[in-house]
Amino acid sequence: MRIDVLTLFPEVMTPFFTSSIVGRAQSSGVVEIHCTNIRDYAKGVRRSVDDRPFGGGPGMVMMCGPLFDAVEAVEAADPRPATRVLLSPQGERFNQTIARELSQEQRLLLICGHYEGFDERIRLGLKPREISIGDYVLSGGEPAAMVIVDAVVRLLPGALGDETSHVEESFSGNLLEYPQYTRPRVFRGMEVPEVLLSGNHAQIEQWRHAEALRRTRERRPDLLEANDTDQPGDSGGQASCPPSDAWLVDRGATS
Ligand code: ADE
């Protein structure tokens, strides 16, 4: 997969894209990520990318010209068709289902805005998919682009390595993750549950499923509504109607 990020702050993005799982996925050729500065496509001495809104009002609006030029130049750099994504608080709310959809694409083009918003013709002319990462307003789309890149890249085959992909297959369902423990067995008087030390894999599996259910019921009962996951040991999430936030059990690596 190729991901292009169009931003006014490429220097903010690069360290994130070269670290941890995303960085490793790039090194191993699972994904290539390119950041382009929208300002490189701005014209005039001042290289403006924003201007005051017609009709008045506070703040500045991101101009069409530099962004259209940047999108067209970046898309021409690779023959694969790009799915355009505009990061904005007005978009559809990002979730694991959307992450999975995006992970199926050959190429993504993420557009980060700044200022009060985008000239509406950016939406009309570029026809991007518009995505929000939550009901709050960020100063720019960059943190949202990082969230989306991270969630998408870890779904790409080979991004997490063989071991974790295998773990992935043995779980399913829209449950929160069960409690995890590592050494030492006792820390400040708090003990690791006995069952996890038993070596009895069936019992461990049952315990984890029960804990995941309990935790989900306590914290996110909405996730259970569309789903019948009540039987320990059942497939836990082969729901006939997939939930919007399907699959919150973290099966991924932690580094
Ligand atoms: N830009 C500003 N706020 C945002 C949000 N909540 N999601 C995505 N992009 C944004």
Description:
Strands 2-1-6-5-8 form a 5-stranded parallel sheet, sandwiched between helices. It has helices at residues 10-17, 20-27, 64-76, 96-103, 120-126, 142-153, 161-169, 194-197, 201-219; strands at residues 2-7, 32-37, 50-51, 61-62, 83-93, 107-112, 117-118, 129-132, 186-187, 190-191. Residues 165-172, 229-247 and 250-255 have low confidence and may be disordered. A hairpin with a 2-residue loop joins strand 9 (186-187) and strand 10 (190-191). It is elongated and about 70 Å long. By secondary structure, it is of the alpha/beta class. Helix 4 crosses helix 6. It folds into 2 domains: 2-153, 3-Layer(aba) Sandwich (Alpha/beta knot); 170-247, tRNA(m1g37)methyltransferase, domain 2 (Trp Operon Repressor, Chain A). The protein contains 9 helices and 10 strands.
Feature tags:
disordered C terminus, alpha/beta, 255 residues, 35% helix, Trp Operon Repressor, Chain A, Alpha/beta knot, 2 domains, 17% strand
CATH class of the largest domain: Alpha Beta
> How much strand?
15-25%
Overall number of strands: 10
First-to-last CA distance:
22 Å
Number of domains: 2
Strand adjacency order, main sheet: 2-1-6-5-8
CATH superfamily of the largest domain: SPOUT methyltransferase, trefoil knot domain
Q: Average pLDDT, to the nearest integer? A: 87
Overall SS class: alpha/beta
